[in-house]
TrEMBL record:
Family, per entry: Belongs to the alkaline ceramidase family.
Alphabetical UniProt keywords: Calcium, Hydrolase, Membrane, Metal-binding, Transmembrane, Transmembrane helix, Zinc
Localization: Membrane
InterPro entries in the record: ACER (IPR008901), ACER_plant (IPR044219)
Coiled coil: none
Organism, scientific name: Cardamine amara subsp. amara
Membrane topology: Multi-pass membrane protein
Domain of life: Eukaryota
Protein name: Alkaline ceramidase
Biological process per Gene Ontology, one example term: sphingolipid metabolic process
Transmembrane regions: 32-50, 62-82, 171-191, 206-226
Cofactor: Zn(2+)
Length: 255
């Protein structure tokens, strides 16, 4: 939210600002809460990465957790600077990440295995190049939502074919976090003028970051469970510190 201060990073050049006063706490951080709220995403992705590497899950899941971290770091850079280049470091990884989800969701039943990763890679590379030269605005949001919607039928199929109660609970948390997070994002965007008059700003966009951090972690964990079932690895849902779910597998000795 512009307040006339340019500070360390200079005038705002990004196309989007959230409902938070710029440089309220530091001359180096434009949107303080929207910046630090990405920390949970990095930590959760790191936990998921360690679990994937320790149990030797397929590399696709290690890359997925790393992509979550890259997205969170890109978002931190964007909200800390409100510069157009850093905005691209947030938006471009969003598209790359959802393309990776599409690969993980659809590749098990794809008959021509080399065509899907090749197409998705070229699509992601082309988007990054075009996005570097053009500002899409609302077009980016529509494009991203369409990509997300393409993932829903497959996620639903995995859900209805999963009998494990704990795994289904993770899927339900995935849905709950994205719904609550979306409400926070919507209110921050639409009711900013009203919220600005409140004694305390609830920081809806920062809450969106936090909820989406858990959303990504739940999505990754559920997909790891489903993939382990497909591979016959006898997956079980365990809980880190009794709270955070993760997948424990038992691979056959031949694997």
């Amino acid at each position: 939210m512009t307040d006339g201060i340019s500070s360390f990073w200079g005038p705002v050049t990004s196309t989007i600002e959230c409902c938070e006063k710029n440089y309220a706490y530091s001359s180096y951080i434009a949107e303080f809460y929207n910046t630090i709220s990405n920390v949970p995403g990095i930590l959760l992705a790191l936990i998921g990465l360690v679990n994937a590497l320790r149990q030797r899950f397929e590399k696709r899941f290690s890359i997925l957790h790393i992509s979550n971290m890259i997205l969170a770091i890109g978002s931190m850079l964007y909200h800390a600077t409100l510069q157009h280049v850093q905005q691209q470091s947030d938006e471009t990884p969003m598209v790359w990440e959802i393309l990776l989800y599409m690969y993980i969701l659809y590749s098990p039943d794809w008959h021509y295995r080399s065509t899907m990763p090749t197409f998705l890679f070229l699509y992601g590379a082309a988007f990054a190049i075009v996005h570097a030269f053009f500002r899409f605005g609302i077009g980016f949001k529509v494009h991203y939502v369409i990509l997300c919607l393409l993932c829903i039928p497959r996620m639903y199929k995995y859900y209805i074919h999963t009998e494990d109660t704990a795994a289904k609970r993770i899927a339900k948390w995935y849905v709950a976090t994205i719904l609550v997070g979306s409400v926070c994002w919507f209110c921050d965007r639409v009711f900013c003028k009203t919220i600005s008059d409140w004694p305390v700003n609830p920081q809806g966009h920062a809450l969106w970051h936090v909820f989406m951090s858990f959303n990504s972690y739940c999505a990754n964990t559920f997909l790891m469970f489903c993939r382990a079932q497909q591979r016959g690895w006898n997956p079980k849902v365990k809980y880190f510190l009794g709270v955070l779910p993760y997948v424990k597998i038992e691979k056959p000795k031949t694997q």
